[in-house]
Amino acid sequence: MLIFGAIIFIVAAFVVVALPLVDKTAADSDEPVAVDLTLAGLQEEKESAYNALKEAEFDYETGKLSDEDYEIIKKKYSAKAVETLEKLEKYQGASGVESREPSDEGKEITSGKVKFCPGCGNKLETGAKFCPGCGQKL
Ligand SMILES: [Zn+2]
Questions:
Q1: Which of 12, 87, 95, 100 stands 20 to 30 A from 116 (CA)?
Q2: Which residues have CB atoms below 5 A from the ion given as ligand 1?
Q3: Which own/partner pairs from 44-49 qualify as long-range (CB within 8 Å, at least 24 positions apart)?
Q4: What is the mean pLDDT of residues 58-68?
């Protein structure tokens, strides 16, 4: 019974010690990636919609698609492209608002394509993961 108690204690201790570590690692790697994914994902979506449109146009011209099919595909992907463009604009617009309000602490300040460090205000390279001025993780 003593050994059983000891095992419970060790497991409990492990969970208490390990869980915050796991949480922290997950949060650290998730946050910047999530931001990148939103923008990169939207751009990818836009691109794939444009590519599909181009492809459909090509197939139509080479006779692989009927008028009807081409119209359906064109409508579908045009709507998708417009929708994604609107999302992109909204996303970039939201970032623009942040840059006019530097008091929004802890957030990455974005003004168009130029980024500035939220910690020291240093201008950042596009896609930089750390600030070259103060070393803050971005
Ligand atoms: Zn900095």
A1: 87
A2: 117, 119-120, 122, 131, 133-134, 136
A3: 45/80, 45/84, 46/81, 46/84, 46/85, 46/88, 49/77, 49/78, 49/80, 49/81, 49/84
A4: 96
